[in-house]
C-alpha cells in the first residue's frame, strides 16, 4: 500500500509507476527503425491474452517515480520519447508530457485508447483491443492505427476500427509474435488486396534488441 502523499502524487501524475526505461530502436509501426527513449508505465486492465509484457499489468509491482527523474533520464539519450505500457492512459499524462516538451523532446504514445486522453502528444499510436475499446477522443486524434492480428477474425475487427478512426490516420496490421509464421502471410495477402493498410512487424524482436 502506498503512503498517502505518494498515492496523491500518482493520482496527480506527478509520480508514475515506472516499470522500465531504455534507449533503443523503435521496432513497430510508422517510426520503425528510428531511435527513441522508451518509458514503460505499469498498470493495465485491458487484459490481452497474448500480451508479451504481462508483468506490466500490476501497477503495484512498479515503483512510483517522480516525472522529473524520468525527464532527466530521457533527455540524456534521445530527441524522441515513446510512452508505453501497460496502458499509460490509466494515469494522467498531462504533467509528464508538459515536462518532456519543456525539455524540447518529441513525445509519442502507444496506447489501446481505452481511457480518457490526457497529455499533449506529437504522435499518437492507437492500438485498439477487443476487450476494452477506445474512447472517441482516441479515434479522433490517432496518427496511426495499429491492429494486432492473432486470427482471421481480427481482420474484421481491423476494418471496424478503421471506420472509426480519423481519415488521416495511417493504418497498420501487425502479426501477433507467437503466431507470426502463420499470420504474416495472411497479412501480406490482405494488404495487397486492401492497400490502404500497411504491414507492421516487430523488427526489434528479429534484431534481438529491447
TrEMBL record:
Keywords (A to Z) from UniProt: 4Fe-4S, Iron, Iron-sulfur, Lyase, Magnesium, Metal-binding, Queuosine biosynthesis, S-adenosyl-L-methionine
Q: Where is the Radical SAM core domain?
A: 31-210
| Residues binding S-adenosyl-L-methionine, per UniProt | 50-52, 86, 127-129
Tell me the Gene3D superfamilies matching this sequence.
Aldolase class I
Give any Pfam family that matches. Radical_SAM
Q: EC number(s) on record? A: 4.3.99.3
Cofactor mode of binding and number, as noted: Binds 1 [4Fe-4S] cluster. The cluster is coordinated with 3 cysteines and an exchangeable S-adenosyl-L-methionine. Binds 1 S-adenosyl-L-methionine per subunit.
Output one GO BP term.
tRNA queuosine(34) biosynthetic process
The UniProt catalytic activity note for this protein reads:
6-carboxy-5,6,7,8-tetrahydropterin + H(+) = 7-carboxy-7-carbaguanine + NH4(+)
Residues where substrate binds: 25-27, 40, 84, 210
Annotated positions binding [4Fe-4S] cluster = 44, 48, 51
The GO terms this record gives for MF are:
4 iron, 4 sulfur cluster binding; carbon-nitrogen lyase activity; magnesium ion binding; S-adenosyl-L-methionine binding
Q: Which cofactor does it need?
A: [4Fe-4S] cluster; Mg(2+); S-adenosyl-L-methionine
InterPro entries to which the protein is assigned, alphabetical: 7-CO-7-deazaguanine_synth-like (IPR024924), Aldolase_TIM (IPR013785), rSAM (IPR007197), rSAM_sf (IPR058240)
Q: Does the keyword Magnesium apply?
A: yes
Q: Which leading EC class covers this enzyme?
A: lyase
| Function summary | Catalyzes the complex heterocyclic radical-mediated conversion of 6-carboxy-5,6,7,8-tetrahydropterin (CPH4) to 7-carboxy-7-deazaguanine (CDG), a step common to the biosynthetic pathways of all 7-deazapurine-containing compounds.
- HAMAP family given in the database record: QueE (MF_00917)
Record's subunit section: Homodimer.
Q: Which family does it belong to?
A: Belongs to the radical SAM superfamily. 7-carboxy-7-deazaguanine synthase family.
Protein name as it appears in the record: 7-carboxy-7-deazaguanine synthase
Supply the source organism's classification. Bacteria, Pseudomonadati, Bacteroidota, Flavobacteriia, Flavobacteriales
